[in-house]
C-alpha cells in the first residue's frame, strides 16, 4: 500500500469518527476523499496483478483496524462485468484508470428486475450506494483495461465480498426466448473440455455457464502451479486435448515459441494456459454463448431439467442440466482417523514452499506424484536440510524412459491384449500374465514399460469385466503397485530426486504416522511405525501433506458435496473409489435411481472406468459427457410461467 492509499484510509476513518460510524452522515466526506485520491497518479505503487480471462480481479489494499471499511482495487479487462447484484453494506467507488459503465436496476410492478439508467464513469467520478435500493451492474465497455477503487463498509478479509445477492436477470429473457442453459461446475481439465464440446455442438439457443472459484479457467489443481519444475507426466506429443488431433498441444507449444520436442515433458503451467486458449477459441467460434462465473457453487436445488445453481456469493442460475466437474477431495490416507492433526503445508498452494528454509528438516507425508513435485521444487530451490518421505508402502513412482531407443524390437501390444482377453477375469491370473509378458519383453531387449503401455487402451474394459470381489482384491493388494508403474514421472524429476537421495538429503520410509504434534518451539514432533524398524520419532521444521487425494465424499469440506449427500442425490460406489454414475454419466441417488439432468465427469469416475485421472482418458469422458447432456436435453422446452407470477430468480437466503 502506497502513501496515497494510506492517506485515503486516514481521511475515511476520520469521516466515520466524526459521524460516529454512520456512513450515510459521512457520505459527502467519503466521496470527496475518494475523489481527491483518484486524481493521484501514484495512488497505487507497484504493479497490480493482471485480471484473469474469466472475470475482474479484486485486490484488497487496506482494511480498517476496527473493521469498519475496506479499500480494494478492481482490475477489469475489456468486456468484464459484474453480475447484477446488491450489497450487504455501503459502497463508494470511482475510476482511477480507464472508464466503466454502471447500470442501475429496479423492480417493476410485477416484481421483475428491469434495467434502468446507465451512466459512463470516467476518472475521478465517484458514486455512493447503500442498501436497500442498491441493485446495479458494473462493466468495462472500453477497449483498454480499467482500474477502479472501491470503499466497502465491511471487512473484506473476513467476508471476502461486499455482495449480498446476485440476480439471474437473464432467466426471464432466456425462458421467453426459448434459450436453454447448461451449467458446468469446475473449470479444470474435465470441466473446461466439457464446456468446449458443448460450445462446439450447441446453437444460438444455448448458453453454457462455467463456474470456477479460482481466477483462471483450465488450470484446476493439476495445472494451477506456476513452478516450471512441475512437469507433465506424459510427453508433449501425447497431451492433446483432442484425440482426433494427436499433435494439438505440441503444435500449440510451437506457435507460442515454446521450445519442446514431442518426446519432452513440458511444464504443467503451460498446459493450463493451453486449456484456457482452447476455451477462448471455442467461445469465439461457437454460435452458443459462454459465460464464466468466478464463484464457488455451494448448492443445487430443483428437479429433473429445472435446477437452480446457488453460489456462496449469493449468485443464482436457472439451468436445464448441470455437469459436476469437480476433482477429488484432499486425502489423509496416512493419518489415522479420530485425531486432531496440526496444520500442514498444502503443496497445491502456490506459495506452499516459500517458508521452507534451505536447511529446514522437512517431513513429507506421502511418496506419490505429489511428493515428487515437492521434491523437484525443493531441489530447484537448493534445499540442503534433511527430508524424510513416508507412506504406508514407501513406493516411489517409476520414471519414463528418457529417450526410447530407435530401431529396437517392438512389443506386440495387440497380441498381448488378445492373450489377456482369453484369460479368466481373475486378478491373480491377469497379474501372472502381465509378469510373464514383462519377462519375455525384457529377454527380447524391450522395456517393461512397453507392456504396461499396452494395457492402457483396454484397462477400462478389463476393469468392467472383473467381478466385484476381484475388484476389491485388486484395490486391496495391487492398487499401490499398479499406480507406481502406471503413473510414471518425467525423467528430469526422477534425476532430481535421485541426486537428493545420493547426497544423503532424502530418506524414504515405509510406515504410518502414529502421532504428529506441534511443539511450543514451532517445530513438529512426528512418530511413525514401520514394519522394518518399529517405532521412530523425529522433530521437523516443516510438515507437508503430500498424500494426494481421496475419493471419499463424506468429510470432504466441500459445501456442494455436503449438500448433495444430505439430499441423497449423490453416493459413493461400493468400493469407495468415487462417484456412482450411470453409463451416461448421470448421478445415481442414494436409493439407486438416476437423476435426470445432473452429471459427473472427472477423476471420481474411477469407480466405473478405473483409469480416469490422466488426459488421454479424461478427454474421452469429457466429450462423452457433453454428448450425453445434449442427448437428454433434446426434448421440447418447458413453457414459460405466466408473466404476472414470474419473478427474477434470486437467493432465497442471505449470507
Task: Characterize the structure shown.
31% of the residues lie in helices and 23% in strands. The chain contains 17 helices and 26 strands. Helix 8 packs across helix 14 (491-502).
Classification by helices and strands:
alpha/beta
Count of helices?
17
State the strand order across the main sheet.
Answer: 13-12-11-17-26-25
Beta-strand percentage?
Answer: 15-25%
Detail the poorly predicted runs. 635-655
Provide the helix percentage: 25-40%
> What is the overall shape?
globular
Tell me the number of strands. 26
Largest sheet: 6 strands, mixed
Mean pLDDT: 86
Distance between the termini: 29 Å
Q: What is the alpha-carbon Rg in Å? A: 27 Å
Describe the SSE topology.
Blueprint (H helix, E strand, L loop, with lengths): L2 H16 L4 H16 L18 E7 L6 E7 L7 E4 L3 E7 L2 E8 L5 E9 L4 E4 L6 E4 L6 E7 L3 H4 L3 E5 L2 H8 L2 E6 L3 H13 L4 E6 L36 H8 L12 H18 L3 E5 L3 E7 L2 E6 L4 E4 L1 E4 L37 E4 L3 H12 L6 E5 L21 H10 L4 H17 L4 H8 L3 H7 L2 H19 L4 H12 L3 E5 L1 E7 L5 E7 L3 E7 L1 E4 L13 H9 L18 E3 L5 E7 L5 H4 L5 H19 L22
Parallel strand pairs: 11-12, 11-17, 12-13, 17-26, 18-19, 18-24, 19-20
Antiparallel strand pairs: 1-2, 2-9, 3-10, 4-7, 4-9, 5-6, 5-8, 14-15, 15-16, 21-22, 22-23, 25-26
Helix pairs in contact: 1-2, 5-7, 5-17, 8-14, 9-11, 10-11
Amino acid at each position: 500500500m502506497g502513501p496515497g492509499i494510506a492517506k485515503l484510509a486516514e481521511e475515511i476513518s476520520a469521516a466515520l469518527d466524526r459521524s460516529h460510524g454512520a456512513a450515510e452522515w459521512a457520505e459527502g466526506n467519503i466521496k470527496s476523499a475518494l475523489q481527491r485520491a483518484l486524481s493521484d497518479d501514484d495512488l497505487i505503487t507497484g504493479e497490480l496483478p493482471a485480471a484473469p480471462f474469466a472475470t475482474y480481479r479484486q485486490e484488497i489494499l487496506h482494511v480498517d483496524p476496527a473493521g469498519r471499511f475496506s479499500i480494494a482495487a478492481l482490475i477489469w479487462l475489456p468486456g468484464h462485468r459484474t453480475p447484477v447484484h446488491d450489497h450487504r453494506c455501503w459502497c463508494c467507488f470511482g475510476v482511477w484508470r480507464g472508464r466503466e459503465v454502471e447500470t442501475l436496476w429496479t423492480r417493476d410492478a410485477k416484481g421483475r428486475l428491469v434495467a434502468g439508467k446507465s451512466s459512463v464513469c470516467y476518472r475521478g467520478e465517484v458514486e455512493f450506494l447503500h442498501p436497500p435500493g442498491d441493485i446495479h451492474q458494473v462493466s468495462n465497455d472500453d477497449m483498454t483495461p480499467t482500474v477502479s477503487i472501491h470503499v466497502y463498509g465491511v471487512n473484506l478479509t473476513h467476508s471476502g465480498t461486499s455482495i449480498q445477492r446476485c440476480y439471474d436477470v437473464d432467466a426471464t429473457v432466456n425462458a421467453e426466448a426459448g434459450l436453454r442453459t447448461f451449467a458446468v461446475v469446475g473449470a479444470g481439465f474435465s470441466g473446461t473440455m466439457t464446456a468446449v464440446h458443448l460450445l462446439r455442438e450447441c446453437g444460438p439457443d444455448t448458453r453454457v455457464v462455467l463456474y470456477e472459484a479460482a481466477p483462471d479457467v483450465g488450470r484446476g489443481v493439476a495445472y494451477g502451479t506456476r513452478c516450471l519444475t512441475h512437469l507433465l507426466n506424459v510427453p508433449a506429443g501425447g497431451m492433446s486435448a483432442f484425440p482426433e488431433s494427436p499433435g494439438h498441444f505440441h503444435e500449440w507449444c510451437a506457435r507460442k515459441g515454446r521450445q519442446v520436442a514431442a518426446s519432452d515433458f513440458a511444464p504443467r503451467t503451460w498446459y493450463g494456459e493451453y486449456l484456457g486458449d482452447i476455451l477462448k477459441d471455442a467461445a469465439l467460434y461457437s454460435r452458443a454463448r459462454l459465460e464464466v462465473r468466478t464463484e464457488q457453487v455451494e448448492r443445487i436445488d430443483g428437479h429433473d431439467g429445472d435446477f437452480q445453481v446457488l453460489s456462496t456469493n449469493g449468485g443464482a442460475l436457472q439451468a436445464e442440466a448441470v455437469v459436476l466437474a469437480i476433482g477429488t477431495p484432499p486425502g489423509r490416507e496416512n493419518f489415522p482417523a479420530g485425531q486432531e492433526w496440526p496444520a500442514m503445508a498444502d503443496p497445491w498452494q502456490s506459495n506452499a514452499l516459500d517458508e521452507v528454509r534451505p536447511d529446514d528438516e522437512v517431513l513429507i507425508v506421502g511418496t506419490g506424484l505429489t511428493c515428487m513435485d515437492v521434491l523437484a521444487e525443493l531441489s530447484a530451490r537448493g534445499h540442503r536440510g534433511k527430508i524424510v518421505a513416508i507412506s504406508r508402502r514407501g513406493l516411489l513412482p517409476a520414471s519414463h524412459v528418457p529417450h526410447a531407443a530407435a530401431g529396437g524390437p517392438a512389443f506386440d501390444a495387440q497380441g498381448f491384449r488378445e492373450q489377456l482377453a482369453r484369460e479368466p477375469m481373475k486378478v491373480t491370473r491377469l497379474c501372472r500374465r502381465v509378469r510373464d509378458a514383462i519377462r519375455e519383453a525384457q529377454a527380447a531387449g524391450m522395456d517393461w514399460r512397453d507392456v504396461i503401455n499396452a494395457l492402457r487402451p483396454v484397462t477400462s474394459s478389463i476393469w468392467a469385466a472383473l467381478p466385484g470381489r476381484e475388484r476389491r482384491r485388486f484395490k486391496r493388494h495391487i492398487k499401490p503397485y499398479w499406480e507406481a508403474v502406471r503413473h510414471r514421472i518425467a525423467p528430469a524429476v526422477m534425476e532430481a530426486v535421485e541426486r537428493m537421495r545420493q547426497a544423503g538429503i532424502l530418506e524414504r520410509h515405509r510406515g504410518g504416522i502414529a502421532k504428529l504434534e506441534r511443539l511450543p518451539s514451532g517445530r513438529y514432533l512426528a512418530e511413525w511405525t514401520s514394519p522394518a524398524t518399529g517405532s521412530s520419532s523425529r522433530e521437523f521444521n516443516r510438515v507437508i501433506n503430500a498424500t494426494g487425494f481421496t475419493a471419499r465424499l463424506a468429510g470432504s469440506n466441500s459445501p456442494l458435496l455436503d449438500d448433495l449427500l444430505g439430499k441423497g442425490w449423490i453416493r459413493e460406489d461400493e468400493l469407495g473409489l468415487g462417484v456412482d454414475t450411470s453409463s451416461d454419466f448421470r448421478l445415481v441417488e442414494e436409493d439407486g435411481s438416476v437423476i435426470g439432468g445432473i452429471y459427473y465427469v472427472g477423476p471420481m469416475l474411477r469407480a466405473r472406468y478405473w483409469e480416469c485421472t490422466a488426459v488421454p482418458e479424461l478427454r474421452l469422458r469429457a466429450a462423452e459427457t457433453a454428448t450425453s447432456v445434449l442427448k437428454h436435453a433434446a426434448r421440447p422446452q418447458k413453457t414459460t410461467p405466466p408473466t404476472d407470477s414470474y419473478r427474477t430468480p434470486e437467493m432465497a437466503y442471505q449470507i
